[in-house]
Design brief:
By secondary structure, the protein is α/β, with parallel strands linked by helices. The strands form 2 sheets. The chain has a 6-stranded parallel beta sheet with strand order 5-2-1-6-7-8. Strands 3-4 form a two-stranded antiparallel ribbon. Helix 3 packs parallel to helix 4. The N and C termini lie far apart (39 Å). Bound molecules: pyrazine-2-carboxylic acid (VGL) and zinc ion (ZN).
Length: 231
C-alpha cells in the first residue's frame, strides 16, 4: 500500500490516537512486537503538532478469554471460535495492574487528555479503540470524540496489523477520517495479517502517511513531559 509523504496540515480538531505503547508489546514483553519501542521517538517527534492526544491501554483481566491458557489444549497464536466469531489466542499480556500493562517508561506524553482502557471484559477481546471484537460493544470513544468536536484521527503505536489497524477501520466505519502514520507503528505480522489489514485500509479509505508529512512545522517551544509512570 502506498505511503504518502506530501505535507499534511494538522488542525485543532485532530486527535492523535496513541495505541497500546505498553511494556508487553515492546522488546522483552510478553507479546513483544519486533522494534515496538522504536515507535516512541517517532511519536515524540510528531506529538507537539497535535492539540489533542489520546492514549489507549490494553487492559485484560487475569484469565482473559483471549489468552491461550484459558483454552485447554490451545497454544498462543492459534485460532479459536468465540461466541462472536474467530479469535486469535495470545500469550498472557497486559494483565491489569502488572508491569507489562504499564506504558513504556520512555513514553513522555503528559499532555495526553484521555487514557482509554480496553479488553477488560473477561469474555471479549478488544483490538479496536472503538468497538470490542464482537464489533458491537462500544468503548465510548466515538461519543467522546464527538462531544469534544474532535473530527479526524491520526493513529500510531502497536500493533499496526491489530489494534492500530482495527481502530483505524472502525474510525472510518463511524465516519471519522483516519490516517495511520506508518513509521510510528510496528506490526505483529501473523498469517498475512499485514496484507489483510492493508487491503481493508484501501477498501475503507484509511490513509497511510509517513511521519515526514507531519513533522515540518513543529513548534520548538513545546516541551516533552515527564514519564507517564511518574504521574
Ligand atoms: C494487541 C493482540 C492482542 C494490539 C492487543 O495491541 O495490537 N494485539 N492484544
Ligand atoms: Zn490484548
Amino acid at each position: 500500500m502506498r505511503i504518502a509523504i506530501n505535507p499534511l496540515q494538522i488542525n485543532p480538531q485532530d486527535a492523535l490516537l496513541v495505541i497500546d505503547v505498553q511494556n508487553d508489546f515492546c522488546p522483552g514483553g510478553a507479546l513483544a512486537v519486533a522494534g515496538g519501542d522504536e515507535v516512541i521517538p517517532v511519536i515524540h517527534r510528531i506529538a507537539p503538532r497535535f492539540d489533542h492526544i489520546l492514549l489507549t491501554q490494553d487492559w485484560h483481566s487475569p484469565h482473559h478469554a483471549s489468552f491461550a491458557h484459558a483454552h485447554p489444549g490451545k497454544h498462543p497464536f492459534e485460532q479459536t471460535e468465540m461466541s462472536y466469531g474467530p479469535q486469535t489466542l495470545w500469550p498472557d499480556h497486559c494483565v491489569q495492574g502488572t508491569p507489562g500493562a504499564e506504558f513504556h517508561p520512555a513514553l513522555r506524553l503528559t499532555q495526553a487528555e484521555l487514557i482509554l482502557r480496553k479488553g477488560f471484559r473477561p469474555q471479549i477481546d478488544s483490538y479496536s479503540a472503538f468497538f470490542e471484537n464482537d464489533r458491537t460493544t462500544s468503548t465510548g470513544l466515538a461519543g467522546y470524540l464527538r462531544e469534544r468536536n474532535l473530527t479526524r484521527v491520526f493513529l500510531v503505536g502497536l500493533a499496526y496489523d491489530y489494534c492500530v489497524g482495527y481502530s483505524a477501520l472502525d474510525a472510518r466505519r463511524l465516519g471519522f477520517p483516519a490516517i495511520v502514520i506508518r513509521d510510528a507503528c510496528r506490526a505483529i505480522d501473523l498469517n498475512g495479517s499485514v496484507a489483510s489489514i492493508e487491503a481493508q485500509f484501501v477498501a475503507a479509505g484509511v490513509e497511510l502517511v509517513d511521519s515526514v508529512s507531519l513533522s515540518s512545522s513543529v513548534d520548538p517551544n513545546r516541551q516533552l513531559g515527564v514519564p507517564l509512570k511518574h504521574l
